[in-house]
Every structure is written in C-alpha cells, then in structure tokens.
Amino acid sequence: MRPSNASPVIRKRHQGDDNKKAPLLPLCVPSDPSFAGRRFAVCHEDGSLFLPEPRPAVRLSVSSTSHPPYERHPYPTFYLSGSTSNATFDLVNESPERSSGRLYPKLEGDAEAFTISVSGRDNHFIEDIKPNQVANITVRWNGGQTREGEGTGQDDREQGPRTNVAFLRISRDVWVLLIGRIQPPPMRPTGFSEIGLPRGESLPAFLDNLVAVGNTEAREPLAALRASIERIVVVGTSSPATEYSPVPRRPSKVMVPDAVLAALVPRDSPPVFLAPDTLLHPVMTVHRVAVDYDGDGQEALLLDATGSHTHEWGGRVTRYIFEVDGSVQEETECPEDEKNCVRELFPSLSIGEHTSRLTIGDQEGRLLSGEDHVVQVTTIDEVPGCALSLYPADTGKDTVSEWLHSNAGALISDPLHQKEEALRPQWVTASITAAGDGRDPDAPQPYESCRIVPDRADSYLDSQFKEHMIIRAMGTIEILDDGSLDSMKLDVKGGDDVAVWINGKETQLANDTRTIHLSRPDKKDYDKRVSFEVRWLVGEAGSSPDGVRLEVKGKNRWYMTHGQLDWPPFINKVTPDVMSPNGGQEMIIHGVGFLNPKSLKTAKLLLSGRMVKRDEVPDGGRAEAGVLEWSGTQITYRTHQIDETGLSHLQVETSSGISNAYPVKVSAAGQMDDIKYKSPKTLLRGLFSFVDRHAAQQEESRILDRLFDEERSGGEQNTRAEWQKKRDAVVGGFGLRGAWGPDAKTFYVGTADGNLMSVRFTANDEIDPQSLKFHDTIKKQYPDHSLIGIAFDPLRDPSDPHLYVSHAPIYYWWRKGITCFEGENGYAAFMAKISRLTGPDFSVLETVVEGLPNGNSDHNVNGIYFDNDGSLYACSGSATNAGWPNCMLGGLPESPLTGALLKIDVRNPKLTNKIEYVYYKTRELVEKPNQVEGDRYDLADSAVGIFIWASGLRNIYDATYTTKGETYIIMNGPNNFLGMCVNGEPQSNGCTAADFDTWDEIENLSEQRIVRNPLYLPKPYKVPRSDKLKNCQPVIRPHFKTPDRIFRSFEGAHHGHPNPARARNTNDTKQWYHHVLTPDMEYTPGWEIPSPTTGISEYRGTCFGGKLRDDMLVSRWRKGIYFLDLPDDENANESIEILTSDTGEQNLNIVYGPGCSIVIVSFVKDEVTIITPEEESLDKFEAEELAAGTAVIYDILPWRAPTQFDIPFTVGGRRFKKEKKPAAVRIGGVEAEISSFDDTRIEGIIRAGHTRDKPAKKLVDVEVIFSDHTRALLKEAFMFLNAPPQSDHDL
C-alpha cells in the first residue's frame, strides 16, 4: 500500500535510547593526536565537535596611526569629529613567510557615513600584503549625513546630536571600529569588560544583559547608559550590522546568529563597543504550563538542559547551574565528561508563576546564562487556554456540517445531539497541548491562546484526523484589572464554517470580519467574565496552515481559562493496542480526566474484568504488573496476565465518571513489542593506520603482540604465525557506506580515507578473515578524497561487476585553516566526483561525472543508488543550513546542483563527464568555476544526462530504492546558529527574481538592513549603472532547528529547503521559501525523526510475521536504529518507531542482510558489526512452524539481477536442517543450483539459460523444496531485469 505523508507517532521500543542530544556533525572521529590532519573532523566521545588544528593564519595588526586610537579594546577604535574627520593607519602583515593574499575591507553599520581609501586609491580591495609589509588605509567621516526623519546637527534639540558608528572588517579577527560625532571626544574614554552578545534574543533581554557584566566597575556605567540608549548596532562574523532601537519605528528583534560586536549608541554621549566573552550556548527546554492534577498545591516540572553546548572548537561544557525564582536549585561540575553533571532537573513548584534559568560554564571558568523561562503552575479548575474536542465524520463534509449548530452537553467530551442521533468526540484535549507552540517562537502566551495547529502532514493531533470534522472549543474570558468587556471583541479564525455561543446563547458573527463584541446587556456581576463555545467545520486540516484559533482584541488585559475538575476520563489513544495474554507489556494510555483531587483513592483501570487501582504499583522487578505512572493525561501500565479472548476493551474510572471503552486486542501471536534483536557482534575492528599497511607496521606489530599475549594468557596455545593469519580480522577503515556485492556474499565498505574494503561472509553473522581486501584505486588517484557513496550496477554481469562511487574531500578547506572564505581564500573548486571502478580488484578507474559541488563541511555528494532501468541517483547535500551561507557551515552558497537528488543517465553515451557552468546573467562560460560565487551560476546548455530529480533537500545523506520501485530519502534538518533562512524572493523596488546575485554591490544601506554572505566579491561582468543601487537579495529570516525527515520522493518532488540560485535559474517560485516558515507552500512533506540520521535501507525480510517487511530502516547516528512503519493490513497509519538502541553507539550506515540481519558500518570505532534477530523473539511469531519443525524463508540476496547472466544468490531463513535438507530452490519457477547451506542460509546460482523467458521488473516468488517434500515459500521477493548489451565498456 502506497503510504500517505502522515505525521508519525514516535514510540520508544527499548530502553537505553538517549533522545536528548545530537552532535553537530555526523562525520567525526575520537579526539586523538594520531588523527590530526586527516580528512575529517574530530569529536569528543560525547559527539561534540573538535575540528583539526588549522594552519596558522596570516597575522595582521594595526599600527603607525595618524593619531592614537580613542580606545583599543575590544579593537582599535577611532573617534572622528568635526575637527578631526580623517584617520590613517598601517595594516601590517606580521607573518615572516606568508603573504596576506587579496583582502576585502568591508564597512558595516553606518557605512554611508564613512569613506575608505587604500594607499590613496578608492579601491574595494587590498591586492596583497607581503610578509612584514604594510598597506596604508585612510578612513574619513563624511559628517552631516543623516537618516530620514532625524535632525541635522546639535541645534535640533528634539533629535539631539547625530552619532555614526561603523565596523571596518578586514578579516574575521581583525576589525577597526569607527565613531563619527560632531562633539570632540571626551578626555578619558570609559573602558568596559566583555559581555555576552545576543543570539536571537529580544531587545529587552539584551538591555537587561547590559547590567549583568561581571566587572563591577562596568556595571554602574552600563546601567546608567541603558536609559539613554537610542539604538544598538550588532554585527556578526558572517552577518552584517543590524540595527535595533527601543523606539517603536524600528524592529526590536535581535536576529544576528553569530554576533561578535555591538555598539551601544546613546543620545547624548559617545557610543560604547562591546565584544562577546564566551561562545557558550545554554539551551533549556521547559514546558510552559504544569497542571496540579492531584491538588496538593505543587507540581514537578522537567528542566532539560541536555541540548546545551559550546561553539568554541575544542571547548566543552563543564558546569550546569539551575535556578528557579532566583535561587539555585542544583549546581554540578563535570570537568572530564559533561554526562557526569546533572542536566535534567525535576523541581516541585507551587501554584503560580515561576521563572527558571540555566547557566552553563566551560573549562576556562567562563559562565553564560540563558534566557528566563516563565512557567505557569495552575490549579485544575483554572487551566490556561481552552478545552478542545474533535468530532470526525466518516460520511464526508456535507454530513458533518449538519452537526455544526446541534445541541451539546456542558462538558467538552459530551456528544453532539440531533433528535435521537449522537455524534461522539474521538479526541479530547486542551489548547496548551494542541497549539503546536513548540514550533512557533512567536506563539501567544498560554493564557492568551485558544488554537489547534495542523502538523507537518496536515492532520490534527493524530494522523487519523485529516478531513471532515468539527472542532469544538470551550472556555472563559476574564478581563483583568479595572477593564471592562465593553471594548473587547472575539475574532474567530480558520475553518470552512463557524458557530459561536456566548454565555450559552448562540451568537451571529459579522460576516466580513468574523468578530463578536463581548459586552453584555446585564452588567451586574458578569461584566468582567464571559464563557464561550466555538465550533469550526473543517473540510481539510491543511487548508488553513494556522489551524483554527480565537483572538481576543481590545485595550484591556485578559485571561482565557477553562476548568478540568469535573471532567470525566476520556481515552484518546492506547499504545500498543494489542496485548499479550502473558502480561508484562508496558501500555501507555493517552487522554484527559484521569486524575483530580477527588479521585486520588478511587481512580482505576478496567480491563477485561480486571480492576487495577491507581496505587497498585509494582514493588520491584521489570516483569511485575502494575501502574508505573498516573497523571491527569497519561497512564503507563505494565499488564497482568489475561485470557486470550481476541477482542477486549479498556476504560478509566474516576469519581467524575467512567471513560469511553477503547478497543484492544488480546493475542498470543507475536506483536510489535516482541520484536527483539541481539546485541551487536563485531566482525571487523581496527585502526586507521592499518589502512596504509607500510606506515602501520610498528603499530600493527604492537597490536598483534598484545592479542597474542592476551590469548596465550587465556590458556590457548597459538603460535605467532597463526596469529599473523588472523591479522586481517582486526582491520577496519573508518567506514562511511556499505553495500553487498553481486556475488551475494561479499560486503563492501567505502571509507573516509578513500580506500574500498571488502570481506566475504560465510554465514549470516560470520566472515572469512582471510578474505579481507583493500582496494586503493581511488586513494592513489585522489589522496584527499573520501568514499562517501558506493553502488553496484544491477544490470551488469555479476562476474564482471561495475562499482560506482561518489567521492570528495570532506572538510577540505576547513582542514587547511579556511573555515570561511575571505581574501586569498576566496576560491573553492567543485571537487566532488562520481567514478566507476572495474577490472581485477577494481583497479580500473573511470570518471563518470566531475565538477559536482562539495561543501566546506560534511555536506557533499553522499549516497548513490540505481533504479531498475540502470539510471544512477546521487544525494547532493546542501551548502547551507537553510538557504543562506554562514561561516559556521563553511561559508559557501547554494549552487545549481546542491540540495537535490540528482539523476545521472550513466547509460547515455553523450553523458556530460565534466560539468560546465555559465554566469546566469550573461550566459558566459565560467572558465574556473568557484563555489564561493556558485549561486551566480547556471548549468551550461551543453549539459547532457544530468537532471534534478527531486529538489528542496538540505543535507540529503542517504536514499534507497525499494522492491516496490519507490525512493525513500533521509534529510538532516537545519540547526540553530548554522545560518539564516531564505524565505522569499527579492522584494525591493525595481528587483525581480531574475536580478538576484548574491554578490550585488550595495552602495546605499541607509534604511534597509540586509544580511549578506560572508564575502564581498566584485562582479566578473559589467553591471549597468541603473542596477548598481539595487538591493536584490532574497528575504532573510532567523535561523531555527527542526528534526530530520524521511521522504517518499518522486520525480519533480520539492521537499521545502530553499535554493536561491535554482529558484532564479528555473523560475521556480517555491524554491525561494522554506516550508517551516511558509507551511502553505507547495511541497511534499515527510515524516519527522530525531536527528542525526545517517543511513536508510529497506527491510525486505518476512521474519517477525512479516510485520517489518517493506518498512524503512533508518540509522540514527550512535543512537540506534529506527524504522518507518508503513501501512499494511494491520496498521492503517504510518509511525516512526525504535527498533533497537543497542548498536554499540557506533552506527553510521546500515545495510539490510540475509536472515533479517542488519550490517552496521561504524565510523568512530572503526568497526563493521552486525545484529541478528533473537531466537526467542522469532519463535513467538513462528509457533506453528516451530511445533512442526518446518522451515521458513525470510529473504533473498540480491533482490534483482539481469536474466542474461548467471546469478549468485543467498536465501536467508531458519531450520534448513541436514536431516531434511534443501533439495531444490525455485525462483520465479526457475530451478536453481544449490552450492551450500547451513541452518539459516542457502547459497546457489540461477543459470542464465533458464531465465530468458521470465518477465522483467516483476516480483516473483522464491520456493525451497526439502528432502521430506515439505516446502517453504517467500512471495514476491525477486525481480528479473533485462540488461542492455554489454559490449560497450562504458555501460
């Protein structure tokens, strides 16, 4: 069944999954000196990034000034006034050996108020500064320039004196700061200590931060300065100066993601420059509302700080301080490992409003506090927001609309009535859990919100609620202080139709505005409080991206609340909904009304005649039945033994009533919770240095000596020569990607060092150590490249395989000390390639496509795969975080082929082997393509056989082609502080989308503050004078973070990540936008999954009763293996679940293998491991076969092959016993030869002469006949393909 794009439910399968912190980058190795200078980043054991030591940068300094700087901290600062409007200084290259290369000084801030000249010329760049030489720079303040609406000088008393500030950025760490002011400088400038600068904070929070400086001498001047601040200018390493002001005419949001400098500009005194004191980033997750369901006057709340980190390379968080209402609740230090600190706290808070704060520290003793989180702890009868219920109808929108104005009871869970008929709700909740506020940084406060927002898959609350429903909301609006209802009104948003009741009386909405005035005719005791009920008719959940909501407007303060004290229990969902009669399962019951102060002793579960009281808690032992958790909205229950009666039902009873009966099934057959895998078994283990055997002889000898000594001490008598034979069994190679060879026995691994490793399997979980080989063809030709993707051509003769590889240097420029592109570092070639390896030991190398983009990070051309026609597909990662470049991700822009799934017609004899680019605006050929200006480019018209198959993808790390002919993709989602988001085409006057050019030279920034890329480059072509003043940048929005996603993609699909270059080149409007900020855009959504995901593989086996067959396995790096559970006969909706968390915390890539095995390619520990199903778990799903002793077949490898050649195969299963051994194997009716077998595996060959009449591209059955004439059948498991003629070596 083809899946819909529904939102998944994430259910935890096994203990041990840490879903709290994801490392910044997936490809890094343990911190160790031996890894220095390698081709990847280095990380600590917890996954935090530690980049290799870059080469020393050219050291620049400022000296020989025309007059002394006004201030030297944090950078040289020149005060220019009416009497001294010029300053000249020398920029010195202090490096004795290296030239500076071309430098591009750039003014930020009040750039129009200053002029720069280099060596007497108005150049835009400094060509070069030789070792120990200087460049002379003069800056001039232009004086009387003003802003619109401001005065012209000191005589304008209302506006006051005009002050200009500017930041002259010469390189990332060399700045000159400029002040232009009519008044001469004070005799003695005030020095200030460093202060934490804002990263997305609100302006009031930043102003509050000014008085939090650690230096007590600075505290008082800053506090005094705060009251007179007219504006604040903030600039980042890759973000230009952005201005903020308390004055309403300017925005008050701080949106510079990488702030490094700030200027505080008072009205009547000189400005003050500040620099950051730390790169710490405290992150604390807190729920905004906690309800005291048991009535004891307090409630425990989770403060989760596990997402905190530092942006300082090599730094680490060593201290955590939790504060509530100004008092320290917990403080721990962890100098060795932050996991030793308390990072999750559960304080019990009393009824009322509380403020929580997190402060973290690093190994240098620096501290930084995060923003304050306001938490409301409420009573059960004053819950913020509104009550909500959903009434879906199976018969369509027209039928459900008849219920919109029907009668209803007083409770939110009551049915709607029409005569004798009743429409009952299927979900009851409250807006504090349904509003989706966690996604929306601008969401209203809990007491101001009554709304329900659709999820990414366009459904409400659960994937079953997509269309044809009534949403009902109930609550009370109370006017605070001395206000009155007279001036207040209720706005009703969303829905196809609406009905409203005020104080129990249905009220008509104004047709044009959908508003109702809340004033009452009887003003006695009710002029401050009014009750409401609103019903929305919803045809499709996704038709209104903001969902349905109420907005109260007026000049008074107000609260919206509802009570839950008298709510009877209502069950929304039970997981799992199939119970084993043996008991011992953990069942989670979701709903409302499960607890109130009157039901503490009477609340109970009712299940198939058994009553389980709330206080029936297990005394101990994992298998003991009882209640594990009981709150107002969730019950976790470990089941008792129960009779197998087929169908049953579950209810909750309290003093307020008894709940709806939720159906559950009782079955002894294996269920999803019975699926278990063994712990990983290591097949290969080694060190990076083993890959280069000549350089590793000494290290290898030491390891062999140690292994020999350990084994000998254990009592075994082995000679050193015997141990030498076993040497290869301990050799790995920093694996990135795995693939099965066409012989159905050999497994291949592409490694980070550029080698290709192969090893032959002799059983489903055993290898032949002597078969281990390293193929260094790529490494010899491209010593800096990593083998990132590998795939065998499925139409080739298995005896003469063609292996395609995607390869590129990872962190290439970063490893050379170029973390961002400036000056001499302004060139980045398109270095990624796809090559073909053939011949003996894959020694023949041919370039298929070169000139593909590769990032200055781990975003590259990643996984590759083939479809059934022999076309190759390549995952081309994005260059940016969310469409706009940032130095934290390497500083490169998107280009025509980034952020997409590429289709490459490798069978086309005219395929373009070397990609050529042209300038979009002139169509001139780019002689030396440079990724730094990659978004100026378009593909040359001469390009043949290379297509964008699917777009809108961020870092698309892997994809798989399934037996059903579908493509599934995993995509790493955006992260905070890795770059701003593009969300709109150019909108300035005179601009069209076609005018976009990242490197536009903006001569006048007097009003609009924009976000530019990290580097200014002059245009390589002539620009008309009329275009020089255009600001044709796309709309830029703040950074944000989202989970990873799984997509079922198709040709032409767009998945929501912006690419300005491709949007302009193809005139595709949707590629200017990001789906998170524009949810109503046309895009193909996917399923959210916790990050980072690093591998995807189809589960092709029928083990576990076939419950996982055709589902998608997903590797979450070092955290476990998930699966996307697609719809089948038992499950109508999709969900994402955890298969196992026990992967040794090393899984990078995963590949499905025979017998339902999963091969795990490790990177950090340099291992190849395997997990296989637990025998007892398999037995639960094979009770009948086990009792009869009959065999079962799970899978066949490969699952497709060409009919023209002999096809080796491996069949996986169980109970292939010698006493009734396999006598024949038939694949699509074709009898194959059996070469060997064991209890779980049959190897053989399908001869070519028997398969030519078989239909191609159709799945056929696999059958095994045993010597006792019993049979085992595997339906629709293998596909014959028709291969083209093999005479042309390029095919």
TrEMBL record:
<feature type="region of interest" description="Disordered">
    <location>
        <begin position="1"/>
        <end position="23"/>
    </location>
</feature>
<protein>
    <recommendedName>
        <fullName>IPT/TIG domain-containing protein</fullName>
    </recommendedName>
</protein>
<dbReference type="InterPro" id="IPR011047">
    <property type="entry name" value="Quinoprotein_ADH-like_sf"/>
</dbReference>
<dbReference type="InterPro" id="IPR011042">
    <property type="entry name" value="6-blade_b-propeller_TolB-like"/>
</dbReference>
